[in-house]
Queue: 3 jobs
Job 1
Amino acid sequence: MLFSSFEFLLAIPVAYATLVAANLYSQRAFLLALIALSLIFYAWFRAEYVLILIVSAVWNYLFAASIEQFPDKRIIGLGVTANVLMLVAFKYLNFIIENANLVLGQTWPQIFVVLPIALSFITFEQISFLSDVRNKRVQRGDFVSYLAFVTLFPKLIAGPIIRYRELLPQLSSARRITAEQLFTGFCLFCLGLFKKTVLADNMGSIVDPSVTSLGEGVIKQIDAICAIVAYSLQIFFDFSGYSEMALGLAWMFGIRLPVNFFSPYRSSSIIEFWRRWHITLSSFLRDYIYIPLGGNRRGALRTFVNLLIVMLVGGIWHGAAWTFVAWGCLHGLALIANHAWRQLPWSETCSRNRGLKFAGWAVTSMVILAAWVLFRAPSFGVAGNWFASIWQNHAQPAYMVSNRQLLLVSALTLWVIILPNIPTLFRIEWDRDRIDWTKPVGIAPVSLSLAALSALALSISVIAMARGQHNAFIYFQF
């Protein structure tokens, strides 16, 4: 069920009342109610998704039991391989067949497979669970707690990517759901809903016609530039809006999730960007791929190779297309260049110079925007037309961005660059490495101004939802 749908807005009071009543009865009843609600929301898309989700949870829990009893690398290797193979079967099988046909000159038919929503996110969470059990960072606990972790509906569809050791203490302890939690959580949900339905979807109305026109050839330079800036705003507002809605929903029920964005477009380096964009994915790639590969402990060359491998994995994780691989490769090369620059003796001095820091922001922004072209384009042909349109002005009037749309893009660009991200209104600590997950989060107290802002955001969002078609979140496809 889409968070940005009327059905979900009507379901929130029912879900909240159910969880509060179950919580008053017992902690176990709360977890069972949470699992039931999560499965209902997940089954709203396709009922068969639920069976896949439960089977995945059961076999990973059994793998964890084997790992606890026999902490052998072969067992965890088998568990990780099983998760990867399931992801390959549903997400990459047709991509593999298509490329095999091209290379081998065959005509093998593609297989109709429906990709279960959120499978990529679930796979990463399952892999981190098995790894943490193997390294004794967490015990597997009882199955009910684990199933509640896997199915938790605020984060199930599009993250944040949660680690079991972060959530288990919250699921295992008794909770006190307060009116302040309900208020602050609902306010954050409303602000995230506004980001999605009003800001992201309006940016999509600029991007989609432009990409369609680019599929036929080059377009005017101003249209191409406006389209890529609009897409950078669309994906930010869409994904950060979802993440904030997830944070708000979970906090309404007394569960704390990590912040996933922290003003990424204000970054003055690509390293800083990945510490601010999709923070939970960045930390997963660092802890479970980059560090096991050797990190930066085996010399500069091996560090650069590891960085490129990590970003290639991050690229293919997003989608079964070579454009995503190219997107990951571009970010990997940018990270390599950034790390190489930091090894120079004068780099630290330059980082304190305001003019050079602004230059770093400008270069970083250009790299990010160029990478978004590859991320959004359905093919290299479209990406090539997009780059050609940006580089040189063309006379074809295939699509014309209106002055009103151009003004909206400009205003939102300034807003994203200058103002901090919305979660800072709630004083939520964003650096997950410094979080004590056993303590309650510090959130801003109830305020009349925040209530008024949230009410206004909700009202405008409802109007936007009533006037337009509901668009799925961009990261649903991943």
Job 2
Amino acid sequence: MARPTTPKPLLTDSATPARSRPRKPRDPAQPRLLLDPMPSRVEPCLALLTAKPPKGPKWSYEIKWDGWRGAIHIDQSGIGILTRNGHDWTRRFPTVEEGVRRLNVGSAILDGEVVCFDDQGRSDFNLLQKSLGGPRGKRVAGEAAFVAFDLLYLDGHDLRNTELSTRRHLLEALIPAGDPIIRFSEDFNGDPDEFFEAACTHGLEGIIAKDRNSTYRSGRLGDWLKIKCVASDAFVIVGYEPSAGAFGGFGSLLLAARKAGQLVYVGSVGTGFNEREASALRKMMEKIPWKRKSPPVPYSGKRQVVWQQPTLIAEIAYRGWTGDGKLRQSSYKRLREQQDDAIIFDLDSFELTKLSERS
């Protein structure tokens, strides 16, 4: 998995390697060439969750980075760092913005992940969230880096209809070797089971498998697959079970996922909280403008529940699903927000993936 020290030449029909650099003023004597307009935003390609890595020559494999999905836009007007939902968070990642300025490019869109690394070089979402001041903090992340894994636009050319292997070839040549802030996400082409096992052994979140011949298609369409060492996803909190003796005054949180465009109850979580997290979470729940007397999801249980407007989103680790569609061995990890790209778990996409695995 070692990266070569000399960048690969950009793909070109000429004998001379093409180099990406700021454009010079056009010579009026030269013909006017058509250039692709640069998109203001690209809906990202998302990975489908699957239980094990796919095999075959068409697949390449990368580390699954534990951070915030982001897109870097570079043009003559400046640099923009957009979250997956289109929020402009450039000012919150000054180190990434400064790193982008070192790229020798006139215009580009890089797809990747904003991360913070721990002492062992692993990306850690909790470190990133802490650097920003917590789930709803407004601080600037002074130690963030950007791991780039795709290139969607380069110097007047829209690359989304180009196969992944070519896009990544161009991307690798664009990023300076050894740059501490803007990094290239290396791929692994050996046995995927061994790569996945190594990722889990080293405490990583998992791996991503990508169809090297695929074009860039927005949405969760199966060109990219994610395989997690321990399953964790975002679920919306729809209520809590009060308990005077528990941290924060609640015994468990009731959770919901999406199915056919609606929220459905998928069980509860009552572990994983420390005293500080539980107290902070309870204060957030008390600030929600209104409580519901009736559940916001179909519910036939007998618990005493304080129902809430489905506003807060929690990242939940779990070991699978029960036969009646509830989370098994769930544990609270952290609070997420829609603005930090938390996407509520979609049961339709999950069931479609399981169906494709059986076929």
Job 3
Amino acid sequence: MSDNGKMTDVAMPQLAESLVSATIAKWLKKPGDRIEQYEPICEVMTDKVNAEIPSTMDGIMGEILAEEGRTVSVGEIICRIRAEASVAPETAAPVQSRPVSSQVPAAVGELMRARYSPAVQSLAAEHGIDLSRVTGTGMGGRITRKDVLMFIEQGGTQTTFAAPSAPASSSVPAQPGASVSSASPFAGTVTPQRVEPTPPLGTAIPDVRHSGLHLTELPKIPTIEVEGEGTGRTEHYIDVTPIRSAIARNMRQSVSEIPHAWTMIEVDVTNLVLLRNKLKDEFKRKEGVNLTYLAFLLKAVVNAIKDYPIMNSFWAVDKIVVKRDINLSLAVGTEDSVLTPVIKRADQKNIAGLAREVEELARKTREGKLTLDDMQGGTFTVNNTGSFGSILSYPIINYPQAAILTFESIVKKPVVINDMIAVRSMANLCLSLDHRILDGVICGRFLQRVKDNLEGFTMDTKLY
């Protein structure tokens, strides 16, 4: 840094060891804006996650060298910042004495207020906050995460709407078939203009089964940009983000290189349902997180992999590499992509520990705080497709792993037991496998072991 008016270069940081570049998604500051150290100056996108780049110092935003949409290599200069001390006192004093709203025209202020960062939107969605009620302290009245956190501390958690003042266009229609988590009464979709209202106080909220990461909130819909609207054109265009491009590349590589095979087994999870219903409320009070079916499934899968370690491997042309650590990737659907955060050393965790890991990854996904380290190192993937009602699926393997397992929806069915018909809670387990490494016999035995582990849960099973 310099105090004599010289500019300080800001380079694209090394967000993770494997990161070589990132794409500038949006500049949050423009030349001439006053910025504080650690305040986000831009949003960047990588193949895995989005992130905000913070300022390295207090000062004035200078020249922007990397325009929005440009892919920048690690270490490349993206902008310059003038040190705070280089601002002349006669110009600095008036800025400090005037409210933020007087520094910019009203139209610019409204524009800045409507520009919510992903972190702000995620935090608002998690706590059910109407961002129009939050006072912004950023440039032009822009709302920051600090503003939202302060609003929460002051007791402004649940959103309330006055019907007479709400324009008709601001209402958000309910999405057919969408489920609401019993852990949170708010599950609306946040946009820069509105949030979905919560039910009136006193309204009973149905206790919908929460079976994994997907039901922490309603799925968000990608923004669709209409080209030539009103001119008779019928096409809609959606920009391909770096994350979507990476998904397309990885899926194509997986399907083209890995000879997929597929098998399925049916599991009686009646005892598991009873066990979870018995423990979930006490676990929530004690740990502060949800006890989901996914935690039990992960434990069953981990124990099965211990018995069949070849499932925890990948193809290396002239050899098969079997990984010692069991790092479970969780396929998580987000607004416009599928992310696979990883539970590291899952074999060293009990059911309670796995439940905490699931909750932590869910929180970081909602808030957009997943790091590249969270996404790397997976050795076997589990996908909880049953959380959105699926009963049968054929998953694509998470390259370069050897297999992926989906846990389908739990459905009550009539089942023949000892020549008598009984109503049981049943679920399907679907496994896609790399047929270069795995064959039907070993995968059949693996699935049978997972089935035995799930059906082996009793009312005496311990979480710790």
